[in-house]
Write a structure and sequence with these properties.
By secondary structure, the chain is of the alpha+beta class. It contains eight helices and twelve strands.
């Protein structure tokens, strides 16, 4: 991980994309721009782990991030993913007293984050109602994503969850050739690798997919959508 401090004008350009930016006073903008940093993380590295030093409010500039829960037994439950342009306040949990559970953030790809340090973000939320509203609206949006995941785990069969994930990946990258391992899929749909492997073999027998080492080729996207 590398921290690089940019010039005020460059950071301000990036910060100006945040919905609350135009509602800040000039002194607040200057203070935030002076302290914001760009952080780079390599694929697979841990960005934030519950109980670790509070990172602050982050916005993804490049790459993607997986946000998940980790049980005492070591089982991971993926909550949602953050893509380019997505902000996140869970990494500023020390600022939000209502967050009473630990989340973990891992770089799925090499990524760059624009980070407003926790102390700065805390001051903004205390001084500016628009920042506080932004924080709670984003928390509500993430909570909705988490509830959808819980519904999938509790009520949707593995075939539906797996087919849905494969179709979403196809829609996201626009390519039926997915470079992903069975272990990575299991993490994304909150299952075990062995169970995912069995379901993929069933999909293959039905002509829906083909598999090779680290690659899954979607042969019938429309039938997967129907599932």
């Amino acid at each position: 991980m590398t921290d690089i401090r940019y010039g005020e004008s460059q950071v301000s350009d990036m910060l100006s994309t945040l919905s609350f930016w135009e509602h800040l006073e000039d002194v607040q903008k200057e203070y935030t721009a002076d302290h914001a940093v760009i952080r780079y993380y390599e694929k697979g590295s841990m960005i934030y782990s519950g109980g670790s030093i509070c990172l602050g409010m982050a916005c993804v500039l490049e790459g993607s991030i997986r946000v998940y829960l980790l049980s005492e037994e070591g089982r991971e439950i993926t909550l949602f993913r953050l893509e380019q342009g997505d902000p996140c306040v869970l990494s500023a949990a020390c600022v939000i007293s209502q967050i009473t559970f630990d989340t973990h953030m891992e770089a799925e790809q090499d990524c760059a984050l624009l980070v407003i340090p926790a102390a700065v973000f805390r001051q903004l939320t205390e001084e500016n109602i628009y920042v506080k509203c932004f924080m709670y609206e984003l928390m509500t949006e993430r909570f909705s994503s988490v509830m959808w995941i819980m519904q999938q785990i509790l009520f949707a069969g593995l075939d539906r969850r797996l087919a849905g994930f494969l179709v979403r990946e196809y829609d996201r990258i626009g390519n039926p050739r997915l470079r992903i391992t069975q272990e990575q899929i299991a993490q994304q749909i909150n299952s075990a690798r062995e169970v995912v492997a069995r379901m993929l073999r069933r999909f293959m027998s039905e002509g829906l997919v083909e598999m090779s080492r680290g690659v899954i080729i979607l042969r019938d996207v429309e039938r997967l959508r129907q599932i």
